[in-house]
Every structure is written in C-alpha cells, then in structure tokens.
Amino acid sequence: MTEKRILELFFENYDGNNLNDALTLTLEFSSKEIMKDVFGSFNFLPKIVEDILTAKAHINLFLSIPQGKRFVVSLDWLRHFDHIRKTVKESIIYARDNFELMSGEFKKLFDRESLKVILAEWERISENSSGVPVEGRVFSLSEFKVYGVILDSVLGGIIGMEKFSQYAKEYNNLISVLKRCQAECVRMISSPTRKES
Questions:
Q1: Closest alpha carbon to 31 in 4, 51, 11
Q2: For the chain, N or C: smaller number of CB within 10 Å?
Q3: CA atoms of 102 and 94, how far apart (whole Å)
C-alpha cells in the first residue's frame, strides 16, 4: 500500500476534530486493503480475519494512551475494548476448532490442549471482571500488547507465516505513516495560530 493511498484514507476520515477516530478508522480500512492485496481477495478468508484486523486497529487506539496516566475514555472506547476481548476469545476458539487448518508454525507454538487451557483461563478472567461498573474499568497497556500477540499468532496461523510476513511488512509501514500523520496533526492542533482563530 502506498503512502499516498494511506493519506487518502486518512483524510477521508479526518474532519479536523476526532484525530484518534480518524487514525483508528484509517488503520482498520488500510489493514483490510493490505490483506486484500496480499491475498487478492477477502472472499475465501474466514470472517475471524476481518474481526482480528478491526480489533488490532482498536488495540492501537488504546496503545496511544500515554503510559502511567489516568485517562477518561468515551463509551465508544469501552465498546472497542469489549470488541477486542470478544475477538481475542473468538480467535482462540477458531484456532481450537480449526486446529487442523492452522499453519505448521502455529502448531509448533500451540497444541489443542494448550488452546483449551488458554480459553479456560480467558473465561475465568472474563467471568471475574464481568459486572464491574463502566466507571470502574481499569485497563493496563500491557494487557493490550498481550491481546495483540494472541491476535497476531492466530492471524499467522490462519494465513501462514509467509503471507503474514508480507502483511506485517506493509502493516508496519502503515503504522509508520500514521504516526507521522498523528504527529503533524497534533503539532498543527497545538500551534498558537490555530488557538487564536
């Protein structure tokens, strides 16, 4: 994916106000375009792949929060958090239920039994955190890094490491371009001339 295409998608989503939303949407749409470029089509990929790409975009939203700070997030962010957790669980279930279809590299890291253990632990943790009022939710940034590793592992298991490597190279370039967009927008937003107008 070219930088020009990434910027086109970014400016389609950025209205000058909601930078995080624009970055997240651009990341989501761009990563799906990259996957289409790698495979030529989304048609034969399981739906969980699209869900994983959306969840990865939302993970990056949370990882943009400055470390060690208390941060109040909107209800949309909480929905994103719930979607991430749901997708992580569904991706583990997909890998367990379709183990024979997963790549050899994935099978070197996990066997069916380890996936069952991971899923049982996931459900135990989820059960303990259910019922927590929205205003009482606490997130750890390291938690999102773990979610990303799980999703990348399952994605690599589904599409194979060769295709995953192609995807990851393009994805890392995408992240680099979006970080530059973010820095430039933040610089423009905080410039004295903008504040005066």
A1: 51
A2: C
A3: 10
Provide the residue range defining the domain that includes 93. Answer: 3-196
> 135-172, pLDDT tens digit by residue?
556 677 788 888 999 999 999 999 999 999 999 999 99
Name the domain count of the chain: 1
Token pair recorded at residue 67? 């470390």
Picking from 171, 134, 147, the residue whose alpha carbon sits closest to that of residue 28 is: 171
- How much is the pTM? 0.85
Q: Which two tokens stand for residue 132?
A: 């927590």
Residue 132's alpha-carbon distances to 44, 79, 87, 136, 139, in angstroms, are: 39, 14, 20, 6, 12
Closest C-alpha among 8, 53, 29 to residue 168: 53
